[in-house]
Amino acid sequence: MHIEHPQKLEPALYVVATPIGNLRDITLRALDVLAGADVVAAEDTRNTSHLLKHHGIHANQLIAVHQHNERGAAEKLVAMLQSGQSVAFVSDAGTPAVSDPGALLVQAVRSAGLRVIPIPGASAAVAALSASGLNAPHFLFYGFLPNKSAARRTALQQLLSHPYTLVFYEAPHRILECVADLLAVLGGERKIVLAREVTKLFETIHACKLSDAEAWLLSDANQQRGEFVVLVSGAVHQEGLSAGTLATLTLLLAELPLKQAVQLATKITGANRSELYQLALDMKG
Question: What domain range is 214 assigned to?
């Protein structure tokens, strides 16, 4: 698609979603905006140049806005907007400012009283969720968990009792560690969906029990490659047992033998020992 006569855009910051893999996953409106903007601000100008060239678009001006220069670049772009220019902002893939650079830029533009216009499109989290088969009515998008195991487990403990589908991003070199920590904190009975390389040539969306996820990843080294969206089913609250009781039992089971975990959970929570014991058996599979 080659746009010969792009439309003149009103002065505003256009937050433009771009493909997460397949270059055809871009909207007609996004192409119009990228062709018509006075300035295209991009996380990686080389990556964006490839996208623009693929669609026959020549940017009037292309500048870099990434995590290392976002504050300074925001001031420059605000000045451009104030002078009457239009700016299209893209990240490397997907929707900007969602686990990507852009939030500081949007904040600066809005604080200056200038207009921000979203141009919706691809999102890895939503794409994976739509194909996951997890049918909870709500989901919690977390993004990237901490890099270190101790901090990651602490973050997961705070999510332990949430009934919502949990949605994370993860890098390939951390996926095994991440799954191990998910298992340790959340227990093996929850359903996990590992969506890797979404919209790309080797797209894989695999669902299993959390206790089986590590074995699946290890069964083929290729299954540890690519960018991951990791979805985990939410906590199931048993009738008569509070979320706090369930969270306590899960944490203790991750560190102690079953009988000892149940005994200690009973003392801490005051819950019925036989109910906790049966629940612990179910959680251990």
Answer: 125-232
Place of tokens 């650079």: 101
pTM of the predicted protein model: 0.81
Residue-wise over 261-273: b if at least 16 C-beta within 10 A, else e?
A: bbbbbbeebebee
Q: What is the identity of the amino acid at 9?
A: L
Say yes or no: 180 and 214 in one domain: yes
The angle formed by the CA atoms of residues 215, 216 and 221, to the nearest 5 degrees, is: 100
Tell me: do 203 and 254 sit in the same domain: no
Q: Residue 171: name the closest of 152, 191, 154, 190 by CA.
A: 152
**pLDDT at position 48:** 96
Q: What is the pLDDT of residues 11-58, one digit of tens each?
A: 999 999 999 999 999 999 999 999 999 999 999 999 999 999 999 999
Which CATH number covers residue 46? 3.40.1010.10
Residue 212 lies in a domain: yes
